[in-house]
Write a structure and sequence with these properties.
The structure holds 2 protein chains of 2 kinds. By secondary structure, chain A is mainly beta. Chain A has 2 helices and 19 strands. In chain A, strands 14, 15, 17, 18 and 19 form a 5-stranded antiparallel beta sheet that branches. In chain A, strands 1, 4, 9 and 10 form a 4-stranded mixed beta sheet that branches. Chain A is elongated, with a radius of gyration of 26 Å. Chain B has 19 helices and 20 strands. Chain B has a 4-stranded mixed beta sheet with strand order 12-11-18-19, with no helix packed on it. A two-stranded antiparallel sheet of chain B has the order 1-5. Chain B has a two-stranded antiparallel ribbon with strand order 2-3. The chains are: A mainly beta, B alpha+beta. Chains A and B meet through loops of A and strand 17 and helix 19 of B.
Chain lengths: 249, 635
């Protein structure tokens, strides 16, 4: 009797011990996907903001024809980099302040599809060249005035000739912040001047000079200046200039 | 031996005959027969559906959900109406209202499909009224979905599983337009079938019409103001409505609102022309009079079985109950400045200085001596009386010299803390009294704040009054102890729907009726009851913002404004790294008088509305269950 009992107990132990062998031995994700979204005409990267700016859309079609999309947010300078992906076949496109790479007409038919199908493995670079809604360029450097304000000159031009994406400009702002992450998601509204209405919609092609609001900026520090503008299309993404640093004495 | 044979035979006989009824339902389960054979069963079924109805009432918060008891991040504190210590930035809803909606829709569909089988138990009038009521509930639920997500899957019958395959049940989203049309059809059916009256808290035909005016107004606004587009592969526009439909929807809203004409009226029982106090008292009473002719659709509560905690969370600090909660909702100065009867600068902001020096007042209420009665009934102003005591709100005591007047303590637009020289303030409610020059003592801060150290006080200089029971003893100011009725739809809203639709129709060039004149009449009815300045002529309504501002004032703190700002597509402009304004009363020790400082919120709470939030994110779990659901843009 005792023998039977012991042998049962032993076999249970052996079974319990051996059945738990299944460790997760699948290799950790180690594939890198990186690149830049740049302007098809000027070749410069498309400046954006983090959070509601450019993002890269990955559709992993190795397993399913209707996968759940995976997104990578880009940096504010338009580059992106993800070093923890699994290898696989992906349909990759970008969304952001530029003419959509995938367009659907009113009947649901895909009329434009510029997404790229890529075997993502090791270190893969995928770049996109797109037409931004707007091109914004500084005209000279921002100037610190005698009264402690900053005046910024810039020029806005259309980035695309497609009339479907040439809506009126709804907002223009010269974003001011105390660190280099500056944009509509992150700015100091005490000093940031904004234009809207007809001031904004008639500004295409003109050189504008805009001065900070709210009186003199506190001195002995640096400010980060970036001009943004947007048209009323879709999620109303902003197009931006790059960031300029201004030192107020 | 024969005996055994008989016994066995008898046992077998008993056995087989006794156990015939094996296929019976357990008696503990409520069957269709129990529910649908008598009107008490129907009432119980209805009660459950109404309890689940998605209305944003005392038990709702955008981050916690519907039917939730602990409401300390109030909805009105993400729309710019109020500020709260527990809600310091913009947000969208985070709880993902989806599964509960489809459960309720299934309940309504099941009811509508099952009741006809039992119709012999009731009169035809009863049956058709109940069928109309089920449609009303379904429409109200679809409206809650469409205002959040845009187009959603339309389920108009009970889905069967496993009779239907999983693939069949993965119903894709319909277009936003189709969902609004579906709601419209359901509400038309409800209007045609429901009776003139019903139990309190249940829909009658005019409730259906009122909801239709609300839903169609939303649809018209989307058609006119939305610029977001999401179209699926079959051409259904899931987000957005063609602009050409705006007129149709605004007309539907206008016509539906007109159906309530003469059936309901604004509450004016205690109102008297020219008597600001009576008008104030009337506006306070309107939220507590069960016989008010203004109540179109309400949700009732009753202690102890169905309760909320609105009083406990929102009373001013000095009337705090034993749970230790108070003053969660504090109206912003931006809200207060919309009203009439307060001194204003040319740009519409409150006037607290003359020639660069603060104006001085003997009492804090002197600034509001001529305030619009509706403002006093909505907001507790500093020094106003609530539950028989004066609500004391004071930021601190200014001890500096007052010769030649007091200059502003901070430059305009500053978010800095106040300078501490010549200033006595309190960090919390245990205060050290300060001895004034005349020898008397005074606490640095008021009994209801402002305290610099903790947020358990009026953080904006105001406290909420609307919906707070004016005579509730402090011993009963507890969580889960309040049971005042939630007014989900007042006739005032119906009038505002009508006026807004009329002004929009006028702007769209419609002139088959004198729309502007009609809006003018409606707005002035509301203004007269409120004790506000009347519009002089219909041309005053040429700017749509007049109607919108009236709506924000009348429906403030009733959990409607955020949705309104969202459907007008203006909230991303209003909340764009925005800091809301507050009004801080100070006592000047040397003058023995008060002065007010209007400033940006000292706590520096910034609000930014993300454009993506115009369409909420469909819960990821739901997309995993039904891969035909297309996610909204940007998520």
């Amino acid at each position: 009797m005792k023998k039977i009992f012991y042998s049962i107990a032993l076999s249970v132990l052996v079974a319990a011990g051996s059945s738990c062998k299944k460790v997760d031995n699948y290799a950790a994700p180690d594939v890198t996907l990186k690149g830049v979204v740049s302007d098809a005409v000027t070749g410069k990267s498309i400046q954006t903001e983090q959070g509601s700016g450019t993002r890269i859309k990955l559709l992993e079609i190795s397993w399913s024809s209707n996968p759940t999309p995976f997104y990578i947010s880009s940096y504010q300078d338009g580059t992106y980099n993800n070093t923890k992906l699994f290898a696989g076949k992906n349909v990759i496109s970008a969304e952001g302040p530029f003419v959509p790479m995938v367009q659907v007409d009113n009947n649901g038919k895909t009329i434009v599809d510029k997404s790229q199908t890529v075997d993502v493995k090791d270190v893969t670079t995928v770049n996109f060249s797109v037409e931004p809604f707007l091109r914004i360029d500084f005209v000279g450097d921002p100037v610190v005035n005698a009264d402690g304000t900053i005046t910024t000159s810039f020029k806005i031009t259309r980035g695309t000739s497609d009339p479907n994406f040439q809506q009126d400009i709804s907002d223009i702002a010269v974003f001011i912040n105390s660190n280099k992450y500056v944009g509509n998601n992150n700015y100091d509204n005490r000093y940031t001047p904004k234009l809207s209405g007809s001031d904004a919609s008639t500004s295409v092609g003109k050189t504008l000079s805009v001065t900070t609001i709210g009186g003199p900026l506190p001195g002995k520090r640096q400010y980060f200046v970036r001009v943004g503008a947007r048209v009323s299309y879709g999620l109303n993404y902003y197009n931006y200039t790059d960031v300029k640093t201004v030192t107020v004495p | 031996m024969k005996k055994y044979t008989y016994i066995i035979f008898a046992v077998l006989l008993c056995w087989t005959s006794a156990c015939k009824k094996l296929d019976t339902l357990p008696p503990s389960i409520v069957k269709d027969d129990d529910v649908f054979s008598n009107s008490a069963g129907i009432q119980a079924y209805m009660a459950r559906m109404y309890a689940e109805l998605p209305i944003e009432d005392f038990r709702y918060s955008p981050t916690r959900g519907l039917n939730f008891f602990w409401i300390i991040s109030p909805f009105s504190c993400i729309s710019g109406e109020g500020l709260s210590r527990d809600q310091n930035s913009a947000t969208q809803e985070t709880f993902g209202y989806w599964g509960d909606a489809y459960t309720l829709i299934r309940d309504a569909n099941y009811f509508a499909e099952t009741l006809p089988k039992y119709s012999s138990n009731f009169t035809p009038a009863q049956v058709s009224a109940w069928l109309g009521e089920a449609r009303f509930l379904r429409a109200a639920t679809y409206f809650a979905l469409v205002k959040r997500y845009g187009g959603v899957p339309i389920v108009d019958k009970v889905l069967q599983y496993p009779a239907q395959s999983i693939d069949e049940l993965k119903i894709p989203r319909s277009s936003e337009e189709k969902v609004y049309d579906f709601i419209s059809t359901d509400l038309d059916y409800a209007y045609a079938n429901l009776g003139e009256s019903n139990q309190v808290g249940r829909a009658n035909k005019y409730v259906a019409a009122g909801f239709k005016s609300r839903a169609m107004l939303y649809a018209g606004s989307i058609a006119k103001y939305n610029s977001i587009n999401l179209t699926d592969a079959s051409g259904n526009r899931l987000c957005g409505i063609p602009a050409a439909k705006a007129v149709t929807y605004f007309k539907a809203a206008y016509d539906a609102a007109a159906l309530l004409d003469g059936k309901y009226s604004l509450y004016k029982k205690a109102w008297a022309a020219g008597d600001k106090n009576a008008q104030y008292q009337n506006y306070v009473n309107l939220f507590f009079d069960a016989t008010s002719p203004e109540n179109v659709f309400v949700r009732q509560y009753h202690y102890p079985e169905s309760v909320h905690g609105y009083d406990a969370y929102n009373v001013p600090r000095q009337l705090m109950g034993a749970n230790g909660y108070s003053s969660e909702i504090n109206p912003t100065l931006n809200f207060v400045e919309m009203f009439d009867g307060i001194p204003k600068n040319a740009d519409g902001t409150i006037k607290t200085t003359t020639g660069g020096k603060y104006d001085l007042y003997t009492n804090t209420m002197d600034l509001f001596a001529n305030a619009e009665p509706r403002l006093r009934a909505t907001v507790i102003l500093p020094g106003d009386v609530f539950k028989g005591v004066s609500i004391e709100i004071r930021r601190g005591i200014y001890t500096g010299s007052s010769t030649g007047g007091i200059s502003p303590l901070l430059p305009a637009g500053s978010t800095a803390h106040y300078p501490t020289d010549h200033m006595v303030q309190s960090s919390n409610a245990s205060q050290t009294p300060y001895t004034l020059p005349n020898g008397t003592t005074m606490n640095p801060a008021g009994l209801s704040g402002y305290f610099t150290g903790d947020g358990t006080c009026s953080v904006s200089g105001f406290s909420i009054r609307k919906n707070l029971v004016p005579d509730k003893p402090t011993s009963e100011v507890l969580e889960n102890r309040s049971d005042q009725t939630w007014l989900e739809m007042r006739y005032a809203e119906v009038l505002l729907n009508r006026a807004e639709a009329a002004v929009e129709l006028n702007a769209l060039g419609q002139n088959d009726k004198s729309y502007l004149q009609d809006a003018f009449t409606a707005i002035n009815q509301i203004r007269e009851r409120a004790g506000a300045n009347l519009l002089l002529s219909p041309t005053d309504l040429s700017d749509i913002n007049v109607v919108r501002t009236e709506r924000k004032k009348e429906l403030g703190f009733e959990n409607k404004t955020w949705w309104d700002l969202r459907r007008w597509r203006v909230i991303d402009k209003e909340q764009n790294s925005t800091i809301y304004r507050t009004l801080m009363p100070f006592y000047s020790a040397n003058d023995g008088k008060y002065f007010f400082d209007a400033r940006l919120d000292e706590r520096n709470s910034r609000y930014t509305f993300d454009v993506r939030w115009y369409y909420e994110q469909i819960p990821q779990g739901e997309i995993q269950k039904s891969q035909n659901l297309i996610q909204n843009p940007g998520y």
